[in-house]
Amino acid sequence: MKRLTVLTLLSSALLLCSAAPALERVTCTGENSAAGGRMAVRHINEHHHHGYKFQLDRVYGVMGTGGGDRCNLHLELGLLETDCHVVNPKHFEDCNLRSDADWEVMANCTVGISIISGNAKIVDYNCITRRVKTNMEMAMIYADLPILVPLNDSDGLKSVHEAVKKFNQNTTNQHYYILQEVGRIKSGYMMVGGMFFSAQFVVVETHCPMGSRILPEACKPLCPDRAHHAYCRSFYSMENGLGDVECDFYPPVNTTALAPGEPEPVCRPPHPAHHPGLPPYHGPSAPPPHAGGRPPHGHGHGHPPHIGGRPPRPHGLPDYTGPHTGQIPPPFNHCDTPLINSDPAVHPICPWHLPYNRPQPRPSQS
Question: Taking residues 283-288, what's their average pLDDT?
Answer without folding.
Answer: 34
